[in-house]
Amino acid sequence: MRGAGPLAALLAALILPGAALAQTEAPAPEIGELAADADLPAPEIAAPDLPARVIAPPDPSGVPVSAILTIDQNRLYAASAWGRRAQAQLEAEGGQIAAENERLTQLLSSEEAALTDRRAALPPDEFRRLAEAFDLRATRIRRERAQAVQELNDWADADRAAFFRAALPHMGDLMAERGAVAVLDYRTVFVSLETIDITEALTDRLDREIGDGAGAVPLPEAPR
Predict the structure, then answer these.
(1) In which domain, by residue range, is 54 found?
(2) Which of 189, 183, 220, 217 is nearest to 202 (CA)?
């Protein structure tokens, strides 16, 4: 037995899920080799980390018609009523889990210290039996607390996925209204007109049509 509580290392910090959908940067386009007999300077290769940019159109009036539209998935989710509701629930549930983790950590630390103090007065066999029972209980609690965190992570992922499933038909409607054939994540585009970004327009539409999505994915009923 050591003096430090058995949960101190594992439960000291609570890792919550991130609300953001993994994004990958588009690789720079490959540049073909010049013909052997071409007497031209080699072209410059675009930097792979070139940030996305938007350019104001010369005439921003009216609804633009474009074959390509862009969207910021993270901003769409975070700014929507659905995303704000999910974030509030995530913070509330995470706070409850963190508080319970802290309570159990303190409880087990106190029990371990008390058992250590009794060691000199107990027969070796009796102390061993009590120590083994304590270790089994501490291991079970660690497993339950880790499961509570994992279930909250899984809920956050499932709720975000449900949002984008619900958003997809409305995104298609907006795409058809704009005369577009595709919607791209803005991070895959180096330069574009700002008028082809539909993030704000789609956020407004989703707030009207699907609301905050409360209850779409029930919260886990894990012990808190």
Answers:
(1) 47-209
(2) 183
